[in-house]
Fold this sequence. Notes:
This protein has helices at residues 3-8, 29-38, 58-70, 74-81, 98-104, 106-116, 128-141, 156-165, 187-197, 214-220, 231-240, 245-253, and strands spanning 14-20, 43-47, 92-95, 120-122, 145-147, 149-150, 170-173, 205-208, 226-229. It is of the alpha/beta class.
Amino acid sequence: MNRINQKLLENKKLLSIYFTAGFPKINDTVAIIENLEKSGVDFIEIGLPFSDPLADGPTIQASSTKALDNGMTTEVLFNQLKDIRKSVAIPLIIMGYFNPMMQYGIENFCKKCAEIGVDGLIIPDLPLNVYNDHYKTIFEKYGLINVFLITPQTSLERVQFIDKISEGFIYMVSSASVTGSQNAFGKLQDDYFKRIADLNLKSPQIVGFGISNAETFKLATKYAKGAIIGSAFVKYLDENGIADINKFVSSIID
């Protein structure tokens, strides 16, 4: 069983943390992953930086720019992760844009992920029908889960189709905007979370975008299986470096 599916079976609300590979410094990637696991995180999303990150807000955009300036590439990331399963057991997901993966070669990219021990991919700009028609068999060949995104504007028909073809969880974007931290969620978001929960989908939902602290984590997981924190953690790394990651995670789940 894929590590993502094993984790989803646990009787708890799950915390996923996103960070940008190669940020703050080029060789911080493995240390961040190891410290996040030791701190009690359930999933880790490793951001593959890209020069045109359309779904990302200013904090993650800036971290991607810095990572690229530091010299981060797909090949560098794979080299950094080649021994990651000797020290880390929790699910690892690469989140990135389709262009760098195409440049690397889709099958080569998936094969490398499988060799390293990456469990899944999140590709916001890969159209659902293109994946289903052209790449699904490649992902399945290498045991990779492709995580699909929904938003408050996603039609019921599309939500149900995504649920049908999903093998892991559904990434439930909290609002129709780019990534970024919020201090609270409003009634519209709460209604959206409940509306999706009431569909009784087979795929658990993990909420992303706008989760930044214990309060928003609790609100996001009122109906969902878990939540993802990205911008707030990237900002924390920018301001504090990687030495005290446990302090950030403890502020969310303790």
